[in-house]
């Protein structure tokens, strides 16, 4: 579990729908996963993965993350390869709280 002093967020990000969208995703995927691994090591990545269409094709992502502030989340997000690489075309961010079981 992330540090309880951090605000948790859910990020729902949708890839572009053009013919080059999947190619853009794969072009920067390794760099994107590096940033996620770093967040995980810092205790800021809770869970996440790809959104799939009915054929199993990746069409977006969902991530549960924790940051001290929305400003810090936005700074990280604006530098993520899926943003700088024009993979994610629509991004929704909502405050979130994990249930403790």
UniProtKB/TrEMBL annotation:
Domain of life: Bacteria
Xref: InterPro entries: Dimeric_a/b-barrel (IPR011008), Sec-metab_biosynth-assoc (IPR051807), YCII (IPR005545)
Gene3D superfamilies, sorted: Dimeric alpha+beta barrel (3.30.70.1060)
Pfam short name (any one): YCII
Signal peptide: none
Domain YCII-related: 8-97
Stated family: Belongs to the YciI family.
PANTHER family to which the protein is assigned, alphabetical: PROTEIN YCII (PTHR33606)
Protein name: YCII-related domain-containing protein
């Amino acid at each position: 579990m992330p540090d309880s002093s951090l605000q948790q967020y859910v990020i729902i990000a949708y890839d572009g729908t053009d013919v080059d969208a999947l190619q853009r995703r794969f072009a920067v995927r390794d760099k994107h996963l590096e940033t996620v691994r770093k967040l995980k090591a810092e205790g800021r990545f809770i869970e996440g993965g790809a959104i799939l269409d009915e054929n199993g094709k990746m069409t977006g992502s969902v991530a549960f993350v924790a940051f001290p502030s929305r400003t810090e989340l936005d700074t990280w997000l604006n530098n993520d390869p899926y943003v700088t690489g024009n993979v994610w075309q629509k991004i929704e961010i909502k405050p979130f709280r994990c249930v403790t079981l």
